[in-house]
Hints:
three-stranded antiparallel beta sheet, 167 residues, 5 helices, 27% helix, 7 strands
Amino acid sequence: MPFVTGLECVVCGATYPARSVMTCPRCGVTGILDVKYDYRAVARRLTRRTLAGRELSQWRYRELLPIGAQARLPNLAVGWSPLRPAPALARHLGVRALLLKDDGRNPSASLKDRASAVGAVKAVEARRKVIACASTGNAASSLAGMAAALGLKAIIFVPERPSSRSF
Ligand SMILES: [Zn+2]
């Protein structure tokens, strides 16, 4: 992650060195950390010319993702989903124009594919054979798809609900 300068808690604003913690130690699990970038350095490296020759997926920005330069990527077109005009909704909201991101075009038809793909790549980098998540919906199908694309086994934990029990 050549452009990462550190991590900042979205709750209390505390800052930490990159890769030092997963959540803010002061705030616990609610202390999600924003990744801070050196945007001047990003602008020097990721120019329009540099990006123009890259594939149309989230991997075109791979230097900004927490993956190694030589990381093996899933052979799936994740991201770069189209923006669609929504004129009726724009009129209803009283705005001149409105565009909706159609993330249904991702491999598992979910926005979750972006994070699942990075998670699966990280698992391969860490030489893991199995990845897991807890989900009742599209995060599960997304992670399973990315795991399959990279030859990993996926284990999905689904909470039991009283209404789903059969008697
Ligand atoms: Zn915090």
